[in-house]
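REQUEST FORM: STRUCTURE PREDICTION
Request ID: SP-0412
Submitted by: Lab K.M.
Chain count: 1
Length (residues): 314
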Amino acid sequence: MKKIKYLFISIVTMLFCISNVNALTTNNDGTMTNSRGATITQEQYERLSEIFASSEHKEQKIDYLEQDQVESFTDPKNDINIQKEYFITTDTLDRYGRVINSITISASKEDAERVAENSNLHVMPNGVLQDVSKSFSPRGVIEGDSYETSSKSLELYYSKLSSGENEIGMWVVWKKIPIVKSFDVIAFRGTNIKNNINYYTAYQRSSADNTFYSENGTNTKISTNGIGVSMNLHDGAQLDHDIGYDIYLRIKGRSSYGDYIYATYQHAVSNISLATSQSYSFGSSGLGGVLVYSNGYSKYFDNMTGLKTSYTNT
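STATUS: Completed
RESULT:
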Protein backbone atom coordinates (compact mmCIF):
# COMPACT_ATOMS: atom_id res chain seq x y z
CA MET A 1 0.00 0.00 0.00
CA LYS A 2 1.35 3.40 -0.96
CA LYS A 3 1.49 5.87 1.90
CA ILE A 4 0.96 9.56 1.27
CA LYS A 5 1.71 12.24 3.81
CA TYR A 6 -0.42 15.36 3.39
CA LEU A 7 1.17 18.24 5.29
CA PHE A 8 -0.67 21.26 6.64
CA ILE A 9 1.54 24.16 7.71
CA SER A 10 0.12 26.69 10.13
CA ILE A 11 2.15 29.90 10.49
CA VAL A 12 0.74 31.51 13.57
CA THR A 13 2.35 34.90 13.06
CA MET A 14 0.60 35.46 9.78
CA LEU A 15 -3.08 36.29 9.38
CA PHE A 16 -5.13 34.79 6.60
CA CYS A 17 -8.58 35.81 5.47
CA ILE A 18 -10.38 32.77 4.01
CA SER A 19 -13.86 33.14 2.63
CA ASN A 20 -16.60 31.07 4.19
CA VAL A 21 -18.30 30.71 0.82
CA ASN A 22 -18.18 27.17 -0.59
CA ALA A 23 -16.65 27.50 -4.07
CA LEU A 24 -17.53 23.90 -5.04
CA THR A 25 -20.16 23.87 -7.77
CA THR A 26 -22.54 20.96 -8.41
CA ASN A 27 -22.79 19.68 -11.97
CA ASN A 28 -25.86 18.17 -13.66
CA ASP A 29 -24.42 14.66 -13.41
CA GLY A 30 -24.05 14.94 -9.64
CA THR A 31 -20.30 15.57 -9.64
CA MET A 32 -18.71 18.72 -8.31
CA THR A 33 -16.08 21.06 -9.72
CA ASN A 34 -13.73 23.06 -7.51
CA SER A 35 -11.98 26.37 -8.18
CA ARG A 36 -8.98 24.52 -9.65
CA GLY A 37 -11.19 22.88 -12.26
CA ALA A 38 -10.92 19.44 -10.66
CA THR A 39 -13.94 17.16 -10.99
CA ILE A 40 -15.00 15.42 -7.76
CA THR A 41 -17.54 12.63 -7.58
CA GLN A 42 -19.90 12.30 -4.62
CA GLU A 43 -17.95 9.25 -3.44
CA GLN A 44 -14.69 11.15 -3.71
CA TYR A 45 -16.17 14.10 -1.86
CA GLU A 46 -17.24 11.85 1.02
CA ARG A 47 -13.75 10.34 1.17
CA LEU A 48 -12.12 13.77 1.12
CA SER A 49 -14.48 14.95 3.85
CA GLU A 50 -13.31 12.05 6.01
CA ILE A 51 -9.66 12.87 5.34
CA PHE A 52 -10.06 16.55 6.19
CA ALA A 53 -12.61 16.07 8.97
CA SER A 54 -10.25 17.29 11.71
CA SER A 55 -8.87 20.19 9.68
CA GLU A 56 -9.87 23.82 9.83
CA HIS A 57 -11.57 25.15 6.67
CA LYS A 58 -12.26 21.66 5.32
CA GLU A 59 -14.28 22.89 2.35
CA GLN A 60 -11.59 25.36 1.31
CA LYS A 61 -8.93 22.66 1.38
CA ILE A 62 -11.02 20.44 -0.90
CA ASP A 63 -11.66 23.43 -3.15
CA TYR A 64 -7.91 24.02 -3.61
CA LEU A 65 -7.02 20.44 -4.68
CA GLU A 66 -5.74 19.76 -8.18
CA GLN A 67 -7.23 16.84 -10.12
CA ASP A 68 -4.24 14.57 -9.53
CA GLN A 69 -4.49 15.24 -5.78
CA VAL A 70 -8.18 14.35 -5.79
CA GLU A 71 -7.42 11.05 -7.52
CA SER A 72 -4.47 10.27 -5.27
CA PHE A 73 -6.23 11.09 -2.00
CA THR A 74 -9.34 9.05 -2.85
CA ASP A 75 -7.54 6.04 -4.29
CA PRO A 76 -8.34 3.13 -1.92
CA LYS A 77 -4.83 1.77 -2.51
CA ASN A 78 -3.30 4.81 -0.84
CA ASP A 79 -3.04 5.29 2.89
CA ILE A 80 -3.44 8.99 3.61
CA ASN A 81 -1.58 10.29 6.62
CA ILE A 82 -2.56 13.84 7.53
CA GLN A 83 -0.07 15.72 9.64
CA LYS A 84 -0.41 19.25 10.91
CA GLU A 85 2.77 21.13 11.72
CA TYR A 86 3.14 24.52 13.36
CA PHE A 87 5.80 27.15 12.84
CA ILE A 88 6.37 30.38 14.75
CA THR A 89 8.12 33.32 13.12
CA THR A 90 9.41 36.51 14.73
CA ASP A 91 10.28 39.34 12.36
CA THR A 92 12.47 42.34 13.10
CA LEU A 93 11.44 45.47 11.23
CA ASP A 94 13.41 48.58 10.41
CA ARG A 95 12.00 52.07 10.85
CA TYR A 96 10.27 51.82 7.46
CA GLY A 97 8.45 48.65 8.37
CA ARG A 98 10.67 46.43 6.24
CA VAL A 99 11.69 42.99 7.52
CA ILE A 100 15.45 43.00 8.18
CA ASN A 101 15.67 39.75 10.13
CA SER A 102 13.40 36.73 10.53
CA ILE A 103 13.66 33.72 12.83
CA THR A 104 11.36 30.70 12.41
CA ILE A 105 11.10 27.62 14.63
CA SER A 106 9.03 24.45 14.48
CA ALA A 107 6.59 24.41 17.37
CA SER A 108 4.01 22.31 19.14
CA LYS A 109 0.31 23.02 18.80
CA GLU A 110 0.32 24.23 22.40
CA ASP A 111 3.11 26.76 21.77
CA ALA A 112 1.44 27.95 18.57
CA GLU A 113 -1.79 28.57 20.47
CA ARG A 114 0.13 30.38 23.21
CA VAL A 115 1.71 32.73 20.66
CA ALA A 116 -1.69 33.41 19.10
CA GLU A 117 -2.95 34.52 22.51
CA ASN A 118 0.16 36.33 23.81
CA SER A 119 1.92 38.87 21.55
CA ASN A 120 4.83 39.08 24.04
CA LEU A 121 6.05 35.60 23.06
CA HIS A 122 8.98 36.05 20.65
CA VAL A 123 11.47 33.69 19.04
CA MET A 124 14.85 34.69 20.45
CA PRO A 125 18.15 34.53 18.47
CA ASN A 126 18.97 31.17 20.11
CA GLY A 127 15.72 29.69 18.77
CA VAL A 128 13.99 29.63 22.14
CA LEU A 129 10.45 30.94 22.55
CA GLN A 130 10.46 33.56 25.30
CA ASP A 131 7.96 35.91 26.90
CA VAL A 132 9.84 39.20 26.58
CA SER A 133 7.57 40.89 29.11
CA LYS A 134 9.14 38.65 31.77
CA SER A 135 12.75 38.99 30.64
CA PHE A 136 13.28 42.56 31.83
CA SER A 137 15.51 43.47 34.70
CA PRO A 138 13.90 45.56 37.46
CA ARG A 139 14.87 48.68 35.51
CA GLY A 140 13.56 47.39 32.18
CA VAL A 141 16.32 46.11 29.90
CA ILE A 142 16.01 43.41 27.27
CA GLU A 143 18.77 41.92 25.18
CA GLY A 144 18.13 42.47 21.49
CA ASP A 145 18.25 45.03 18.72
CA SER A 146 14.62 46.14 18.68
CA TYR A 147 11.66 46.74 20.95
CA GLU A 148 8.29 48.39 20.51
CA THR A 149 5.16 49.39 22.30
CA SER A 150 1.81 50.48 20.92
CA SER A 151 3.09 54.07 20.66
CA LYS A 152 6.74 53.82 19.55
CA SER A 153 9.48 51.47 18.43
CA LEU A 154 13.26 51.30 18.97
CA GLU A 155 15.90 49.86 16.68
CA LEU A 156 19.56 49.60 17.74
CA TYR A 157 22.78 48.48 16.08
CA TYR A 158 26.42 48.31 17.18
CA SER A 159 29.05 47.20 14.69
CA LYS A 160 32.60 47.45 13.44
CA LEU A 161 32.75 48.97 9.95
CA SER A 162 35.05 47.93 7.14
CA SER A 163 36.88 51.23 7.75
CA GLY A 164 37.86 49.92 11.18
CA GLU A 165 35.60 52.38 12.99
CA ASN A 166 33.03 51.37 15.59
CA GLU A 167 29.48 52.61 15.13
CA ILE A 168 26.38 52.80 17.31
CA GLY A 169 23.01 53.94 16.04
CA MET A 170 19.43 53.99 17.28
CA TRP A 171 16.15 55.01 15.66
CA VAL A 172 13.00 55.82 17.53
CA VAL A 173 9.82 55.87 15.49
CA TRP A 174 6.63 57.28 16.93
CA LYS A 175 3.56 55.29 15.89
CA LYS A 176 1.19 57.60 17.77
CA ILE A 177 1.66 61.30 18.40
CA PRO A 178 2.33 61.78 22.14
CA ILE A 179 0.06 64.06 24.13
CA VAL A 180 2.90 65.54 26.18
CA LYS A 181 5.62 67.20 24.13
CA SER A 182 8.52 68.13 26.36
CA PHE A 183 12.18 67.11 26.71
CA ASP A 184 12.64 63.43 25.86
CA VAL A 185 16.07 61.78 26.20
CA ILE A 186 17.77 59.35 23.80
CA ALA A 187 21.00 57.85 25.15
CA PHE A 188 23.69 55.16 24.97
CA ARG A 189 25.74 53.61 27.76
CA GLY A 190 29.05 51.83 27.09
CA THR A 191 32.76 52.39 27.68
CA ASN A 192 35.33 54.73 26.21
CA ILE A 193 32.73 57.07 24.70
CA LYS A 194 34.10 60.49 25.60
CA ASN A 195 37.03 61.51 23.36
CA ASN A 196 36.19 58.57 21.06
CA ILE A 197 33.71 60.25 18.74
CA ASN A 198 34.85 61.25 15.26
CA TYR A 199 31.35 61.28 13.80
CA TYR A 200 28.13 62.34 15.48
CA THR A 201 24.59 62.99 14.32
CA ALA A 202 21.38 63.45 16.26
CA TYR A 203 18.10 64.73 14.97
CA GLN A 204 14.35 64.90 15.38
CA ARG A 205 12.31 64.81 12.20
CA SER A 206 8.56 65.32 11.97
CA SER A 207 5.94 66.93 9.78
CA ALA A 208 6.35 70.09 11.87
CA ASP A 209 10.12 70.58 11.66
CA ASN A 210 13.61 69.06 11.37
CA THR A 211 15.90 69.71 14.33
CA PHE A 212 19.57 68.71 14.45
CA TYR A 213 21.57 68.59 17.69
CA SER A 214 25.32 69.25 17.75
CA GLU A 215 27.84 67.21 19.71
CA ASN A 216 28.93 70.27 21.68
CA GLY A 217 25.46 71.80 22.02
CA THR A 218 23.58 72.43 25.25
CA ASN A 219 21.19 69.53 24.59
CA THR A 220 23.97 66.92 24.46
CA LYS A 221 25.59 65.35 27.53
CA ILE A 222 28.70 63.17 27.15
CA SER A 223 30.81 61.25 29.68
CA THR A 224 33.27 58.38 29.54
CA ASN A 225 30.52 55.79 29.84
CA GLY A 226 27.61 57.45 28.05
CA ILE A 227 26.07 59.99 25.73
CA GLY A 228 22.57 61.44 25.87
CA VAL A 229 20.60 64.04 23.92
CA SER A 230 17.55 65.88 25.24
CA MET A 231 15.06 66.74 22.52
CA ASN A 232 12.07 69.02 22.97
CA LEU A 233 9.34 67.31 20.93
CA HIS A 234 7.85 69.37 18.12
CA ASP A 235 4.58 71.10 18.81
CA GLY A 236 2.14 70.57 15.97
CA ALA A 237 3.78 67.33 14.80
CA GLN A 238 1.45 64.96 12.99
CA LEU A 239 1.94 61.47 11.63
CA ASP A 240 2.80 61.77 7.96
CA HIS A 241 3.05 58.76 5.63
CA ASP A 242 6.04 60.17 3.78
CA ILE A 243 7.90 61.76 6.69
CA GLY A 244 6.78 59.96 9.85
CA TYR A 245 8.12 61.03 13.23
CA ASP A 246 11.71 59.88 13.83
CA ILE A 247 14.29 60.39 16.56
CA TYR A 248 17.86 59.35 15.74
CA LEU A 249 21.26 59.20 17.43
CA ARG A 250 24.46 57.85 15.87
CA ILE A 251 28.14 57.98 16.78
CA LYS A 252 31.34 56.51 15.33
CA GLY A 253 34.74 56.15 16.99
CA ARG A 254 38.17 54.72 16.37
CA SER A 255 38.09 52.42 19.41
CA SER A 256 35.53 49.93 20.69
CA TYR A 257 32.70 51.11 22.95
CA GLY A 258 32.80 47.84 24.90
CA ASP A 259 31.42 44.34 24.44
CA TYR A 260 27.87 45.57 24.96
CA ILE A 261 25.97 48.77 24.34
CA TYR A 262 22.87 49.79 26.30
CA ALA A 263 20.40 52.16 24.70
CA THR A 264 17.27 53.88 25.88
CA TYR A 265 14.65 56.40 24.86
CA GLN A 266 12.76 58.01 27.70
CA HIS A 267 9.63 60.00 26.96
CA ALA A 268 8.74 62.81 29.35
CA VAL A 269 5.18 62.31 30.60
CA SER A 270 5.14 65.76 32.24
CA ASN A 271 6.31 69.15 31.05
CA ILE A 272 9.89 69.53 32.28
CA SER A 273 12.84 71.81 31.64
CA LEU A 274 16.00 70.98 29.72
CA ALA A 275 17.91 71.08 33.01
CA THR A 276 15.57 68.57 34.60
CA SER A 277 15.88 66.19 31.64
CA GLN A 278 19.67 66.37 31.91
CA SER A 279 19.97 65.79 35.66
CA TYR A 280 21.09 62.21 35.16
CA SER A 281 24.26 60.15 35.27
CA PHE A 282 24.94 56.96 33.33
CA GLY A 283 24.56 53.66 35.14
CA SER A 284 23.07 50.16 35.04
CA SER A 285 20.46 50.98 37.68
CA GLY A 286 18.95 53.78 35.60
CA LEU A 287 15.95 54.01 33.32
CA GLY A 288 16.39 51.56 30.47
CA GLY A 289 19.66 50.50 32.08
CA VAL A 290 21.20 53.85 31.14
CA LEU A 291 19.85 57.02 32.81
CA VAL A 292 20.14 57.34 36.59
CA TYR A 293 18.03 60.14 38.11
CA SER A 294 19.10 60.06 41.76
CA ASN A 295 16.97 63.12 42.55
CA GLY A 296 13.69 61.30 41.93
CA TYR A 297 13.16 62.89 38.54
CA SER A 298 12.71 59.45 36.96
CA LYS A 299 9.01 59.83 37.80
CA TYR A 300 8.76 62.35 34.96
CA PHE A 301 9.52 59.69 32.32
CA ASP A 302 7.66 56.67 30.97
CA ASN A 303 10.43 54.18 31.93
CA MET A 304 10.35 52.51 28.53
CA THR A 305 12.29 49.27 28.27
CA GLY A 306 15.91 49.68 27.21
CA LEU A 307 17.96 47.59 24.81
CA LYS A 308 21.23 45.74 25.27
CA THR A 309 23.09 44.51 22.21
CA SER A 310 26.51 42.99 21.60
CA TYR A 311 29.27 44.07 19.28
CA THR A 312 29.05 42.65 15.74
CA ASN A 313 31.24 42.81 12.65
CA THR A 314 29.84 44.07 9.34
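NOTES: Residues 190 and 261 are 5 Å apart (CA to CA).
Reviewed by: T.R.
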